[in-house]
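== Protein entry: sequence and backbone fold ==
=== Local backbone shapes as whole numbers ===
==== Amino acids and backbone structure tokens ====
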Amino acid sequence: MSIANLMEDFWRNPFGNVSMFEVFPKNLFAGMEAYPVVNVSESEKEITVDAELPGLEVKDVDVSLQNGALLITGEKKFEGEEKKDNYHRIERSYGKFTRAVPLPAKVNDKGIKARFEKGVLHVTLPKAEPSAPAQKIKIES
């Protein structure tokens, strides 16, 4: 194999079969996950979504139901900025966010409850009543 072929192979696939998460430090991709982080659980009668929103207040967050997903939107504002502070690094995220959480079952939009407690949004969505089984229709000839 020639040097030209080796170089061509390298530029086509520089890391071979190694994933980029194995090559770069694990913390390099920290903060790239979806925000806010959520836990979704399901029982026989309801679906529960818990979203971590540290540093936010109720007025900063909106919750809605759209196309079979729970939509959590809001804005985290940078507060307390002082001109005399000389920041070297800011890792805390600020700005507008939207998170669509697909729901594992249909829900009854009446009776949805949401509460905000200690930086965690808790949303309880009652499941919709199961639809009646398909009824067979007699075909006349």
Notes: The CA atoms of residues 9 and 16 lie 9 Å apart. The longest strand covers residues 69-76. The chain has a mean pLDDT of 80.
